[in-house]
Amino acid sequence: MKAFLKHREIWLLAAIVVLIGLISTRFPAFADPGNLRQVFNDTSILMILALGQMVIILTRSIDLSMASNLCFTGMVVAMLNAAHPAIPIPLLIVIALAVGLVLGAINGLLVWRLNIPSIVVTLGTLTIYRGATFVLSGGAWVNADKMSPEFIGFQRAAFLGIPVLSWIAILVIGLFFVVMTRTALGRSIYAIGVNPTASVYAGIDVGRTKFLVFCISGMIGGLCGYLWISRYVIASVEVANGYELNIIAACVIGGISIAGGIGSVGGAVLGALFLGIISNALPVINISPFWQMAISGSAIILAVVLNARGERQQGRIILRKAEAA
Amino acid sequence: MTDIPAPRRIPDRLDKPLSSAIFSWEALLVVVAIAIFAINSFASPYFLDPYSLSDLTFNFTEKGLIAFAMALLIISGEIDLSVAAIIALASTMMGMAVQAGAGTPVLVLIGIVVGLGCGAFNGLLVTRLGLPSIVVTIGTMSLFRGTAFIILGDQAYKGYPESFAFFGQGYVWWVVSFELVLFLVAAVVYWFLLHRTSFGRRVFAIGNNPVAAQFSGVRVGRIKFILFCLTGLMSGIASVLITSRLGSTRPSIAQGYELEVITMVVLGGVSILGGAGSIVGVVLAAFIMGLVTFGLGLLNVPGIVMSIFIGLLLIIVIALPIVWRRLRGGR
Q1: How far apart are CA B201 and CA B189, in angstroms?
Q2: Residues of A in contact with B145 (CB under 8 A)
Q3: 297-326 in B: which are within 8 Å (CB) of A?
Q4: Residue B311's closest chain A neighbor by CA?
Q5: Which of A126, B22, B141, B283, by CA, is between 20 and 30 Å from B101?
Q6: What pTM value is reported for the model?
Q7: Hey, is the C-beta of B211 within 8 angstroms of any chain A C-beta?
């Protein structure tokens, strides 16, 4: 199983290398380390979000409210910054994490305590959180000129030659890697996805763990709220509208099975990078950006076809045989 | 608490008295609808007017048409997130045909055929390759709308023929619009299909236990394929209506409709896990969503705030019976 998982990520990595190779035949400077660092930085937010979504999908749930959470939390920190520029940025990040945590916990409680399917809960909170952003801001935007220089500059500051935003992404990736592979929580997340019934008998509190993963994805959404707003320097109700599906797309391309239990930190990161490379490459190789949506759609379908073939080898689908008989 | 989750929770409501379980849900919806209707009439003097009420129906007829097919699809345990993208692609194709000088009958045919084709594509991927529909349709959603973006970019198609406007703007009799008539006819057809034919029973059987259905001789793959085609077809029809109503096509047309359609279906009492639901519930849910958005619109509440009410309505209506049952059960 482990060897198999490694296998899948190596293939994805190979696909990314081939993609970069193909792009650099048209535009040689693309494969330049400096440019690749830039692509990584551009994709950081998507990578972090994909990791938050990954833990959810691993437990057979789904969180459609992440982008709305991002939008709401982003508005909260932007308005706080506009009103009280003296609040230090680290404290603002803690506030963003806390606001995101609360929004995630609401999802988690509804899933855990009332046993409502996560897709229904987050479909509801998707619209509620975005609507709440409108109520909070009164429909107004927070523009760059209202934000303090520190608010905008924090993630752009270079540390060891790499922007802070990239460092945050690296930190989050490392953190998720440790949690998913080296802690009991990580193992129970996988266990629930593979077999919830067996997990109960193994002493795992399935409901509580699901609550926790929604808290995690909420915090991730909150963190990215600050990162997104300070990167694109505008806070409005329209921020990241529809982005929840991009996040899920990154996970799917990264080989995370929507049926739960299969997927890894590396996969989620590579899946996000794949989408990031495409969106960065299209303008430089003179393809209209309008192609991007169709290309990522095709990539998703291709990825899910390939992944399904991998999963079938494990004999997960019993019905196939019955159909053939 | 010894709630052991099954690998896939099977809501086997079929062995309980079906009518009573379903009736109580619909009763709840009727109460909600009447309450909202009453609140609306008190809140705005403009609400109780035949022309206002006629305008109201445009809020839900197009989405409602898709919701019928989507209800069957969700009952069978699948989902289609690409419906809004199908609308965009079908509308774009109709726009291209207009540029080529096509007449109204050809336009309608193109819209319907493109919708059907997109649905069949989804169905093939899901049933032939055995892929999870939620992921497939996230992919085709990007693919279909992406294709519309490739064709149109930031442009728009206009210049639809005069006679084409009837579908989205025409009235059959007094204040009864063509869209409303179509919605009601579709409601009856889908009600009959789901609740009065063996096809409908098979859809329920598949949703409750696809393996058992397979061994009982139900052609699971074929029925699911038909359901995807139906959903595509209804999206194509909705595309004709919307394009006709707006009189123009942009690639961003009907953005976000998929979630509203699914909200409508779930609000109508269809179990998102499959195997349970009714068309009457979906019709009521469509009315409720129309009433809420229209009523709030008369009070000058912005659309984004209305969505809070829709979201809250969805969660509360789902949570209410669960909480009630739990309180009564003494847990």
Answers
A1: 15
A2: 293, 297
A3: 302, 304-308, 310-312, 314-315, 318-319, 322-323
A4: A124
A5: B141
A6: 0.84
A7: yes
Q: Does the beta carbon of B139 lie under 8 angstroms from any beta carbon of chain A?
A: yes
What does the alpha-carbon distance between residue B131 and residue B137 come to, in Å, rounded to a whole number? 10
Q: How close does chain B come to A111, measured CA to CA in Å?
A: 10
Across the interface, of B6, B142, B318, the residue whose CB is closest to A116 is: B318
Residue of A62, A75, A238, A293 to mutate, testing the B interface (most B Cβ within 10 Å of its Cβ):
A293
B318·A237 Cβ contact <8 A: no
Pairwise CA distance, residues A43 & A45, whole Å? 6
> Domain B16-321 belongs to what topology?
ABC transporter involved in vitamin B12 uptake, BtuC (1.10.3470)
Q: In CATH, what number does A2-310 get? A: 1.10.3470
Q: In chain A, which ranges are continuous DSSP H helix?
A: 2-26, 33-58, 66-83, 89-113, 118-137, 149-153, 164-182, 184-194, 196-201, 206-232, 243-253, 265-284, 292-312, 319-324
pLDDT top residue among B18 and B178: B178
**pLDDT at residue B22, as a whole number:** 53
Q: pLDDT digit string (tens) for B201-240?
A: 999 999 999 999 999 999 999 999 999 999 999 999 999 9
Name the residue ranges covered by the structural domains of chain A: 2-310
Tokens of residue A225, six digits: 């709220």
CB-neighbour burial class of residue A215 (10 A; exposed 0-12, middle 13-18, buried 19+): buried
Reply yes or no on whether the pLDDT at B19 is more than 80: no
Low-confidence ranges of chain A (pLDDT < 50): 313-325
What is the predicted pLDDT for the residue at B214?
Answer: 92
Q: Residue A137: what residue type?
A: S
Name which of B131, B255, B319 is nearest A304 (Cβ-Cβ).
B131
Instruction: Evaluate whether A69 touches A132 at the Cβ level (below 8 Å).
Output: no
Sort out which chain B residues have CB atoms less than 8 A from A115's CB and list them.
Answer: 3, 322
Give me the interface pTM, i.e. the ipTM.
Answer: 0.80
Residue-wise burial string across B86-114, b where 16 or more C-beta atoms lie within 10 A, e elsewhere: bbbbbbbbbbebbeeebebeebbebbbeb
Which DSSP string corresponds to A129-167?
A: HHHHHHHHHTT--B-GGGS-HHHHHGGGSEETTEEHHHH
The kind and range of the H/E element at B315 are helix B303-328
Task: Tell me if B153 and A288 make a contact (CB, 8 A cut-off).
Answer: yes
Each domain of chain B, given as residue ranges in start order, spans 16-321
DSSP letter for B103, please.
-
B-chain residues near A127 (CB < 8 A): 259, 263, 307-308, 310-311
Which alpha helices (DSSP H) does B153-246 contain, by range? 166-169, 178-196, 198-208, 210-215, 220-246
How confident is the model at residue A321, as a pLDDT? 47
- In one-letter notation, the amino acid at residue B131 is L
Using the beta-carbon criterion (under 8 Å), do B311 and A245 form an inter-chain contact?
no
Distance in angstroms (rounded) separating the CA atoms of residues A150 and A199? 47
Q: What are phi and psi of B143, to 5 degrees?
A: -65, -50
